[in-house]
Specification:
Layout (H helix, E strand, L loop, with lengths): L3 E7 L5 E2 L15 E7 L2 H6 L29 H7 L8 E6 L5 H14 L4 E5 L4 H11 L6 E5 L3 H11 L3 E5 L16 H18 L3 E5 L12 H5 L2 E6 L6 E9 L7 E7 L2 E4 L3 H5 L10 E8 L2 E13 L7 E4 L3 H15 L6 E7 L11 H13 L7 E3 L2 E2 L5 E2 L4 H10 L4 E4 L19 E4 L3 H9 L3
Parallel strand pairs: 4-8, 4-9, 5-6, 5-7, 7-8, 15-16, 17-20, 20-21
Antiparallel strand pairs: 1-2, 1-3, 9-10, 10-11, 11-12, 13-14, 14-16, 18-19
Helix pairs in contact: 5-6, 10-12
Length: 463
């Protein structure tokens, strides 16, 4: 017969140990290790039945009807774009972001927009009182008709209220504040977050109720709690923005009902978040043409092309080692580009301080702006401004070659729509962009460059 065995399990991170410990060796929490009795042995495994349930009826996919109008429109076009057309009933969405980035603001705006349409919304908060949330709603100028508030941290109370009120959308701020009475640990522990999220997901599916969960993030920028939290929900959204800059970017890290390539662009104002329908025009609105060291490039935020301004400053090093500083651009990539510029183009900046800034507080992650960075550095070094209507993009390799960037036709069309007249890029030889190699006449002139020497010659010649 199998013998019962005592195992000591941490209630905070589920780590196991053969003996009791005052402090968990995995997460460092004190007083969370508790004894649990388990049964081990081959006999116990053989005694367990293979199946105790009854077979259920199956449904053919070709008999399932799906209507696009079933989605709930939030009233924010940028948010609906990221969702894939709106919130799907019965779905659970996890919204994460840094403190103060605007998670609660966008959630409150969605609740107010739906309430103004006559839909009932419920805002559940374990961190703020009803008066505090109403003060924020009044400051944002949001109406409260058909919008209801619940202050609760017990997940069973929240679920019972949802089943009774049956709102069109429920917002939980935040999931880390909920706790289940069956789990003996404090709120925010891994076991508590996992148990609370599991109950909310089951409630959403059973009642066809969409739920928006607001989640905290760690110092690394990841959603706090177990990784299973991101697996059990249907959609994971990340709200990003640099402190001190008004622009906010909403990305979909996971979306079971739409694409993860869409992004939403917002501006944080005194009246809350406002949508930016034309981010390229917004970012280039304050641009000063004719200044050495300034260049325009085009990056892809999901499927959306967006023009950005890159500024570079080069000066002679006064003492010690030269300084390299970046804002919004990868420092290691800048070091590589400087080495390529010195080796392949003969422009050695080893004795100069170099500063690169992406205007607007954006963070560039794709290699397409490499060419624009090199052109900005050469312009700053020679004190010769680039043409006011020039845009450049392309990945720069170690051999000094310029590699094509995807979606070149959409980048070119975006530049032409903003009134730019000249583009320097390596046009792709395959893919959808290759079919549109020659742009329409009168819009923008394309100069193909396959090396950085060709690009520098085309950008700085006769300037």
């Amino acid at each position: 017969m199998p013998q019962p065995t005592t195992v000591y399990v941490c209630a905070n991170c589920d780590a196991q140990s053969p003996k009791w410990l005052g402090q968990c060796p995995e997460c460092g929490a004190w007083g969370t290790v508790q004894a649990e009795t388990v049964v081990k042995g081959a006999g116990a495994a053989k005694a367990a039945p293979i199946s105790v349930g009854k077979a259920a009826a199956v449904t053919a996919f070709d008999q399932v009807s799906v209507r696009a109008e079933d989605r709930v429109k939030t009233g924010l076009d940028e948010l609906d774009r990221v969702f894939g057309g709106g919130i799907v009933p019965g779905s659970v969405t996890l919204l994460g972001g840094e403190p103060g980035v605007g998670k609660s603001t966008v959630a409150l705006m969605v609740a107010a927009r739906l309430a103004n349409k006559g839909l009932k919304t419920l805002y559940v908060s374990g961190e703020e009182s009803a008066s505090q949330v109403k003060l924020r709603a009044d400051r944002l100028g949001l109406g409260q008709k058909n919008a209801f508030f619940l202050a609760a941290t017990d997940v069973d109370t929240v679920i019972a209220t949802l089943e009774k009120e049956r709102p069109a959308l429920a917002i939980v701020d935040s999931v880390q504040m909920l706790r289940s009475p069956e789990v003996p640990s404090e709120a925010g522990a891994v076991s508590q977050v996992r148990a609370a999220a599991g109950k909310l997901v089951a409630c959403a599916k059973a009642n066809n109720l969409p739920i928006l969960l607001i989640g905290h993030v760690t110092k690394d920028g990841l959603v706090a709690g177990p990784k299973t939290l991101e697996h059990v929900v249907d959609t994971v959204l990340s709200f990003e923005g640099e402190r001190g800059y008004p622009i906010r970017i909403l990305r979909a890290l996971k979306n079971r009902f739409g694409s993860t390539d869409e992004t939403g662009i917002f501006e944080m104002t005194d009246a809350g978040l406002s949508e930016i329908g034309n981010p390229s025009g917004y970012l280039l609105e304050e641009r000063e043409p004719g200044v050495p060291g300034g260049a325009v490039s085009c990056v892809m935020e999901g499927t959306r092309p967006m023009l950005i301004e890159i500024q570079a400053l080069v000066r002679k090093t006064s003492f010690g080692y030269p300084t390299r500083k970046c804002s919004g651009f990868d420092l290691a990539r800048l070091e590589m580009l400087l080495a390529v510029l010195a080796k392949r183009a003969g422009l050695d900046l080893g004795g100069h301080d170099v500063f690169v800034n992406v205007v607007g507080g954006l963070k560039v992650s794709e290699p397409a702006p490499d060419l624009a960075v090199l052109l900005a550095l050469a312009s700053a070094y020679h004190e010769r401004p680039l043409p006011a209507g020039l845009v450049a993009w392309g990945e720069v390799g170690l051999a000094g070659e310029i590699r094509p960037s995807p979606a070149a036709d959409r980048r070119l069309a975006e530049a032409a729509a903003l009134g730019l007249t000249e583009a320097i890029a390596a046009w792709p030889k395959r893919g959808t962009s290759a079919k549109q190699k020659t742009p329409p006449k009168g819009q923008i002139r394309l100069t193909e460059a396959r090396s950085i020497s060709e690009a520098l010659k085309a950008a700085l010649a006769k300037r």
